[in-house]
Amino acid sequence: MKAMLQKLKDFLFRFFRKQPPVEAKPQEPKPKRKYNKQKSKDFGELLDNLEITFNSLKLPNLAGSWLEKDSIIGLKKIGAHVPNPWEVKFTKKTSDILIDVTRPLPAIMCISIPNESAEEGKHYPRIMYAIKQKRLPWNVAFKPGAPYIYGAAYEFHGELFWMHMYLTVNKKTGEIHTCEELRQIDNVIRGNGKTTYYSNKRWAPPAYLENDDHNVKDMENTCLNLFRAMHEWWVDRDLRWNVVVKKNGERVTFGINDKDTAYYFKNRDKVVSENGVTKRIVHYVREHNRVTNGKETTIKEHIRGLREFNWNGYHCNVISPRLEVKTSAFFEAPGNDVEEGAEKVVYLSKVGKLLADFEERRSA
Hints:
Layout: H1 2-15, H2 37-57, H3 69-78, E1 80-82, E2 108-112, E3 125-132, E4 146-156, E5 159-169, E6 176-178, E7 181-191, E8 194-204, H4 216-235, E9 241-247, E10 250-256, H5 261-264, E11 283-285, E12 288-292, E13 295-299, E14 302-304, E15 308-311, E16 314-319, H6 348-360
Parallel strand pairs: 1-10
Antiparallel strand pairs: 2-3, 3-4, 4-5, 5-6, 7-8, 9-10, 9-16, 11-14, 12-13, 15-16
Helix pairs in contact: 3-6
């Protein structure tokens, strides 16, 4: 674990620092503002999704969850990411569901699935996550590639049940493979008026894929599509402004594009200075030329305005990875299973807290 701690430190110092200016693109004429129904819809959905996510995070964990308590704490520390909008492109053929291996394979990914709709007897995931591993455990069949614990937290009667399975990402081809598990299977034999029950251990598809309404192959296809969508969203975090939102001690993050900051925060709580001037919301200023007293000067790209403010009952901290700090999307060090109480170990709960703190750190 010393090696993992060193990788974490190296990552934090390498990526969480001020970035060099990005070459500015030629300015284009500003289009006239038009009323956009789709944007209004997106904004309303974002507010709903944030509230659903906060409600999910504060739910207690169901006893018997498959994921260790410390790992759950680590995921909550780094905070669920709210995709806006949440778009999943489904590929029907499982072998064609590929990860872009030219992009990072992050150590931790955690995404909110903002779905409160439910039918009688149906349960839907609230949080989807993936935790990279150094190796597969002994009771999981080997598949070549980078191993991940992949799973979701489902709500059962006001509590979250954290389930998971193991999968691997081939570092050369990008193929995703689910891993069979050594499971105890219950069997029933009926004949001659007698019923016999017995159990045996054998390799079988992950229990995570068992579903009363769908066969294992369909469930596998759905999970691999969702894993790919989560990876694509997560590794693009450095292309967007990341807005860290806090409420009652919980942390949630969502991303928006440069041009959309003013739109999403137009109804933020106003902050007035001692001179009675309303402070402007955070915004990105592209490189441009300014003429003053007949003299032309070049203004480099920069960020202006408030970066921390209250908005719709949330406390927001806006981070621009392009000009300030990198996100945890590029932290790729895998974890490892250790015995409880082991010394000289950096537990996931601490890793999640460190990554979250450094994402919010202001560059000097």
